TrEMBL record:
<dbReference type="Pfam" id="PF01122">
    <property type="entry name" value="Cobalamin_bind"/>
</dbReference>
<dbReference type="InterPro" id="IPR051588">
    <property type="entry name" value="Cobalamin_Transport"/>
</dbReference>
<feature type="binding site">
    <location>
        <position position="53"/>
    </location>
    <ligand>
        <name>cyanocob(III)alamin</name>
    </ligand>
</feature>
<keyword id="KW-0964">Secreted</keyword>
<feature type="binding site">
    <location>
        <position position="175"/>
    </location>
    <ligand>
        <name>cyanocob(III)alamin</name>
    </ligand>
</feature>
<dbReference type="InterPro" id="IPR002157">
    <property type="entry name" value="Cbl-bd_prot"/>
</dbReference>
<protein>
    <submittedName>
        <fullName>IF factor</fullName>
    </submittedName>
</protein>
<dbReference type="GO" id="GO:0006824">
    <property type="term" value="P:cobalt ion transport"/>
</dbReference>
<dbReference type="GO" id="GO:0015889">
    <property type="term" value="P:cobalamin transport"/>
</dbReference>
<keyword id="KW-0813">Transport</keyword>
<feature type="binding site">
    <location>
        <position position="197"/>
    </location>
    <ligand>
        <name>cyanocob(III)alamin</name>
    </ligand>
</feature>
<dbReference type="InterPro" id="IPR027954">
    <property type="entry name" value="Transcobalamin-like_C"/>
</dbReference>
<comment type="similarity">
    <text>Belongs to the eukaryotic cobalamin transport proteins family.</text>
</comment>
<dbReference type="GO" id="GO:0005615">
    <property type="term" value="C:extracellular space"/>
</dbReference>
<feature type="binding site">
    <location>
        <position position="8"/>
    </location>
    <ligand>
        <name>cyanocob(III)alamin</name>
    </ligand>
</feature>
<keyword id="KW-0406">Ion transport</keyword>
<keyword id="KW-0732">Signal</keyword>
Amino acid sequence: EGDGVIGNIYSTGLALQVLGATREFYAPREWDCGQAFSMVSSHDYQQPTAIAQVLPALLGMSYLDAAGLDCPAVSLVLCPPCPFVPPPPGAPIMVHYSITNKLQGKHFSYSISLEVPAGSTLLQVLQAAEEEKPDIFSFQTEQTSWGPMVVSIHGLAANPDDRTYWQFLSGGDALQEGVGTYKPWDGEHIQAVFSTY
């Protein structure tokens, strides 16, 4: 991508590991490694899996280097635990949320506008929509190593056999983060579209 992202913000860490570990085995195309490193180092990763994929590249290593580490020689500096101070609640923002199915069964399209605290995750927006109109905006998630994944909305479940899933979009572009970490901005329109891959 033109912004240094290789695939998406989550796959870029793995791509950096691969490109770094294999550079002596092939003549790589020219790519702006500094731009890719800048993108991953400036992103606020939340899930341990995402952090685990990008951290080796930021340290100039890859997973392949793990076999050669001398663990007893590594010293860890542990700091005393810091008291947790929850952030103050954010001022309310307005998020527009819609769900659309034009793929299977009875087609539908519903929209709602919700006021949520600034800093709310998309999952919290979905919960607020379900609380306000449970007969329309009900949803189910499954926990993955990347956080919660929406598997059903309005009673319509994703199905790997049919290659269907719920895709989340903003401004027509797929979100690069999951519902558990993505934080909508004031006035944003989030679309959940039943899609196929």
